[in-house]
Every structure is written in structure tokens, then in C-alpha cells.
């Protein structure tokens, strides 16, 4: 039993319509997203709320990456761009010791970013752990803090080695500014 | 009476499908989707092989009672397995592969156009339903374009919609389990897979994508079947059902009641029931009403034969009532044991096949009688009548041969499967609540 020509044309037309919608979702939306700027300026020296209770003072010259930043109530994340260096703060409501939280972050870096040569000997203030890593051509730095044994804050930075070295003091200061309000 | 079902002739369906452009669209979408899905799963499989395989196996088993329930929604006219599998594959492969980039981009757009805080709270409620419900709806459109003949009733639309939603739901849950393992940063652990299974499979599963897309499918079924209504009315019903699916999905993903009424985990479980329960109830009521209407139509065709050897008044009433045929099977079991129950089941299946064949005669007939020319049965319907008579003789013979066999009715495999699933789900849910309370 054949298919009438008109039926075939209608079927082709509807099929093209379906294809167009799929293309609009898989290619159109990402293209539209890329067309809009993702970075926003943040006021210098003003604390940015990553969650309702955890804040960070962004490094000077940092831009907020709104496409990646998702502040929340108990957990959230903020991503800043300092030149080509990506500085991310991730807050989670987890009951972990500082050592366990540091182990978790190192595993995430290894599994998620493919980080290697993860070092744990970075100087860090009391109540924090810090270290360095490599992820492909980029170098990275991380720090972990735990507040009241209930809130874990991971800070990671990655970018070209030269640029990272230049901005690292500012990033360390920003990480040290992470505070938890009651 | 307006027919609630609209069967078509089936001859040459497969050969016809291959010639349709939509068939090649489907082949292309499934192929590309499969490659992209493999690329998504491969890293998790490489890093956490035990956890990922456990998730795949666990959610594959989880699928079984859903499929059994969905397939049995339309017990009078079962859908072809190949089309059901196609619907499932569209949800599992095409929707998953396309929703991921779409959701990410749309969520980012919400953050850019409104604010990151708004996107964090309302992004999943706005983005997920828009992107995912549209993609799942496209699957229904593909099924309609591929095999319109198989969409004979509103129930059929719900069945295909539910299969598409189930496919997506299962693969999405596997990805959530893999993400949970990665986020935990504690290596290849299966306990996180089980907790994801409880939360997303058990607590959230019964009123998730399967139900949302079944609602959208009801609209598609209506639009295909009710050709007596204007295009505007049918388009309106489709829009209403798709909008309903979107709204249910939106409410489910929204942060409303996320705090569990301030009672922690037990409150959050109650909130899940409050959000999901009405959606499931709505879908089940809709399916029941559509099925009853469909059964009434088929019963009227059988009744028009006027032959009590083919169908008795009691059997006609049983076709139209919820659990009517199960009661008759129980009676057959009481009279002649398991063989009697099987014979009764076979008789009712033969009657259903005859009714569907008669309705095809209606669809193909030019006259108002409902049957082919001059109230004569079509050759195919005649064959079905013979099957019914043969099945009735077999049942009658058993009634005589084994009059003393009386045991309590054990129920059907379907009922055992669903009952077992409910028991397991209930136990897991109860365990989770106890764990949260202690």
C-alpha cells in the first residue's frame, strides 16, 4: 500500500517542523546564551552572598560569571573571573571534618576536572586546608574551610600558570574573607 | 454515538512507515542521541563503574512494573511492542541527549536576563518543564506521524506518552545517581546510588515524567481520534493537556513547600505527596474515564452481533466495569482452578481482539451499520468470531471436567508484580522516614 503524495509532503513538512524545534533547543538556545555576556561587574570590597549566611569579598578586578553563579539558602556557588583565571566558591550544607572536606574536594578535582599532581602543602590559615593542582595546561589552587562542622566551603582557582601566579595573593585574600554570619 | 476509538486498517503499516520522512527523522535522532548519550555516560562508567552499573541495573528493574502497568492500561487493545519501545527510546535517548544542552543554556539565560539568585530558585521550575515537555511532546508527534493507525483512543495517547516519559525519567535518574556519586567525592560508592533510588525513584517516581507526558498524550490521543471536532477544538485540547503537563512539572520543580512545612525530612516527604499525589490522581482518573468510554464502545460493537455465544450480557457488563473481568476470572478459578482462570482470560482476550476487528470494520465501512457491506462480518472478524467460540468451548469443557478444583484465587502476574513493587516501595519509604525521624 503506497503513501499518497500529499500525505508524504505533509509528513515531510511536520518532520521538518520537529527537526526545527529540536535544533532550536539544542543549538539555538546555546547560541542565544553565548550571544549574551556572562560577566557582570561586582562592587569593589563589598561582600557577595554565596548563600544566605556565607559571604565572600571578591578579588579586585573580578567579574561575576552569572551563567555559573547560583546563590542559594543553605548551599550555593559563586564564580568570578579574574582575567583568564576562574575563581569558584562552592558552599554546601554537609557535616564533615576539615580533613574529610579536603579529601572530598581533592577527589572532585581529580574526577571532575581531571586534576593531577594535587599538592596539599600550601600555607593556610587556621581552620583551613589549601593546596595546588594541575588540570591540563592550567594550574590551580584550592582551599577548604568548614564552619561550625555544618557548612563546607570549597574555593578553587584555575587558569594559565603565569596569570594564576599573579592573582594568587588576591585570591588567597578573597578566600580568607569568606565569612559565615549567624 | 461518537466513537471514542478510531481504529484503522493495519495492512502494510511497516512497509508504509519506512517510506515516511518521519521514519528517517526518528532513525537519525535516535542514532545521534545514542552517540551523545554514550558520551555522557562513558565518563561516569569509567570513573565509577560499580556505582554506574548498579544504577543502570537498579533503574532497569524499576522500569519493569511501570511498563507492565502502562501496557495494561489499555487491556482491550494492546499497543505493538515495537512502537512502545520506540516511544521509550525517544524519551530515554533523544530527550535526554537534547534536554541537557537545552536546559543548561536556558538556565543560564534565566540567570543572565533576571539574576543568578532567581535562576537558582526558579530556574528548574521554568526551564525544565519548557524544554523537557516540548521534547517529550515531539516524541508523541513522531509516533502519530509514524503510525497514526495505532492511536485509536485517548488511552493510546496516554500509553505512548507515559512510555516516552518513563524512558526519560529512568535515564535522568541514572544520571542523577552518577552525579550524586561524583559530587560526594568519595569514590565508587553504591550507597549513594541507593539513596538516589529511594529519593528519585521511590518518593518522586510515581508522579514524575511518566505521568506528565501521559497527560500530554491524552490531548494527542483526543486530537487524533476526535476527527468529528473542529481543528480549533482539537488543537485547544492538545494545548490544554500540554499546558497541564507543563504546569504539573512546574509545580513539582518549584521551590514551593521545599522547606517541608518546617518539619525537616518528614515534612519534605509530605510535601512530595502534596505536590505529586494530585497529579497522579488526575492522570489515573483521566485514564479510567477514557478507558471506560473505550470499553463501552467496544462492548456496543460486540452487543450488536446479537450472539450470546460470542458474548453474554454478564461479560458485556464486565467489559465496561472496573475489575469486572477480574471478577469473572476469579469465578472461573473457583469453578475450574488455574486452568479455568487461564481459559477465561483467553476468552476475554479473544473477545477484545474481535471487538477491535469489528471497530476496524466500522472504520472501513461506508454504511452506518458498523460492519462491512450488508451487516456481514469482514473475513478477519469472522476469524476472530471463530476464535471466541473456540475459547468458549475450551472454558465450558474445563467447567465440566474439573468441577471440584477450588482454591483461593491467586491473582494475576500483573497484580503480583504491581503489588510487590508497592510493597517494596512502601518499605523503602517507611525506612527512609524512620531513618529521618530517629
Q: What does this protein structure show overall?
A:
The complex is a heterodimer of chains A (182) and B (438). With 182 residues, chain A is of the alpha+beta class. Chain A folds into 2 domains: 36 residues; 142 residues, Mog1/PsbP, alpha/beta/alpha sandwich (Protein Transport Mog1p, Chain A), CATH 3.40.1000. Chain A has 3 helices and 11 strands. In chain A, strands 1-4-5-6-10-9-8-7 form an 8-stranded antiparallel beta sheet. In chain A, strands 2-3-11 form a 3-stranded antiparallel beta sheet. The mean pLDDT of chain A is 92. With 438 residues, chain B is mainly alpha-helical. Chain B has 2 domains: 282 residues, no CATH class; 103 residues. Chain B contains 14 helices and no strands. The interface between A and B is large, with 38 and 45 residues. Chain A: Keywords: Membrane, Transmembrane, Transmembrane helix. Chain B: Keywords: Membrane, Transmembrane, Transmembrane helix. Chain B: This is Membrane proteinase PrsW, cleaves anti-sigma factor RsiW, M82 family.
